[in-house]
Design a protein that fits this description.
- The chain is mainly α.
- It has eight helices and no strands.
- α2 runs parallel beside α4.
- It is elongated, with a radius of gyration of 22 Å.
- The termini are far apart.
Amino acid sequence: MSSTPRRPRHSSRHKSRLQRAFRYRLVIPMLRARHGPEYVARGTMVGLVLAFTPTIGLHMTLALAVWVIATRLFKWEFSLILALAWTWVSNVFTGLPIYYLLYVTGQLLMGRWQDLSGYAEFLDLWHTLTAGNHTIWQDATIMAKVMLEDWGVAMCVGSVPWAVVAGGVGYWVSLTFIRMYRREKAIRRERSAMDGSRY
């Protein structure tokens, strides 16, 4: 008598935890933002563009720097909170797969068809470089070596199409979503006001 295999409980718990984090850190701040939809959508766009760049550990710092430069020099405003939040698309769980995707894309765009290491080799090299206890200076040196000598050029080149696509799609989806949400909210408010005026 065959029984269907059970899914491990920890995977469903992990999935629900990720869903909760996505909702509370990314979706709810978009819905509660008091500025116009474009302002909110631009924050999502900036965060996603930075998430798909090989700036390991610097995403949030760069988001703040972009915000300061954009608002002070160019008078171009966006939601800093949402930009910071959406950089977390590249996180502990997704960082290495994203960086591998950037690396392979860069190698292909530069015509290096024969120089595509597999994901397992990519992970092995990464863990070899980052193994052990390092000081902050040693970590910075390792990251500089990775970016300048090993995969950096390929990752930078490969990040361009992904950052453009992620930013563009993120802007359009969030703008559409926020406008729809606010329109429905206004309709509900009107209906409740009309229902209240009848009594």
